[in-house]
Amino acid sequence: MNNQSSPAQLLFPTVPATYCPEGRWSDILNSFIQLYLNNGTVNIPGLGLVTPDQIQTINQNIQNLQNQYDAIAVNVRTGTITSIVSGLGTYVVSFATAMPTTNYLINIEFVATGTPATTSPGWSLANGTKTTTGFTFYSSLTAANDKVTSINWTASSVITN
Q1: CA 93 to chain centre
Q2: From its phi and psi, is residue 58 left (phi > 0), alpha (psi between -120 and 50) or beta?
Q3: Taking the complete model, does pTM exceed 0.70, yes or no?
Q4: Fold held by 73-160
């Protein structure tokens, strides 16, 4: 069959007029599948142009992509601090399980009850405290004005193994 000169199609043997099995529907359908559908072919234009070496290269590229995907690890640690210090506070964060490296991002979210007077409380990382097991940060809050009741933190990293 010349795959280059025809559209993609499924080809099956012709079912003869004498095909009329009896019995349960499951037996009839299984007989039809075995005799006709299992003997079908697929005609795909251009398929003859793909060489076995090209197919091997495509399969290897797919495997390489799968290996790269499997090697990506997303590490996320989260927590909430509810003991808020008025004035300059020192907050120590410890991870239940260590991060693979100290190359992670830290996000700090202040949660306030009511409308705080300070619209964007700030924080800073304490120098030298960022380790695989945690970090320490400072924040200056005025309890009466800022109305911060908790601090949510997230540490995340994406690494390739």
Answers
A1: 27
A2: alpha
A3: no
A4: Immunoglobulin-like (2.60.40)
Helix (H, G, I), strand (E, B) or coil at 149: strand
Question: Beta-carbon neighbour count of residue 141 at 10 Å?
Answer: 23
Q: What's phi and psi for 64, nearest 5 deg? A: -60, -45
Residue pair 152/111 in contact by the 8 Å Cβ criterion: yes
Query: How many Å apart are CA 131 and CA 151, to the nearest integer?
Result: 20
Which one-letter amino acid corresponds to residue 3? N
Token pair for 77? 């640690």
Q: Which residue do the tokens 């964007």 mark?
A: 120
Q: Where are the domains of the chain?
A: 3-71, 73-160
The mean of the pLDDT values for the chain is 86
Q: What are 11's two structure tokens?
A: 């080809």
7/3 Cα distance (integer angstroms): 8
Instruction: Give pLDDT tens digits for 37-55.
Output: 888 888 888 777 888 899 8
- DSSP helix/strand/coil, 67: helix
CB 101 within 8 A of CB 159: yes
Phi/psi at 106 (nearest 5 deg)?
-120, 130
Only one residue has tokens 């800022």, namely 146
Structure tokens belonging to residue 91: 């907050």
